[in-house]
Amino acid sequence: MVIALSGTPKTLPDQTDDYKKFWSEYQPCTLTSLRPAGGPRMAPVEVTTAPATGIV
User: Fold this and answer.
1) Domain residue ranges of the chain, discontinuous segments joined by +
2) Alpha-carbon distance 46 to 9, whole Å?
3) Is the pLDDT of residue 16 over 60?
4) Burial zone of 43 (CB within 10 Å; 0-12 exposed, 13-18 middle, 19+ buried)
5) Residue 10: is it exposed, middle or buried by C-beta count within 10 angstroms (0-12/13-18/19+)?
6) pTM of the predicted structure, to 2 decimals
7) Is there a contact between 12 and 54 (Cβ–Cβ < 8 Å)?
């Protein structure tokens, strides 16, 4: 899987150790999209990573 970061996209195994450590810990996240009227719709989500395979 390719991750969009500022700059060149990288696969998870190419990320720094700090990046991998950050995502190995529980991180509350939200997925936000815009409603037809323009207001935000936010949903809580969890992220799972598998650095050895590059899966996010």
Assistant:
1) 1-22+44-56
2) 21
3) yes
4) exposed
5) middle
6) 0.48
7) yes
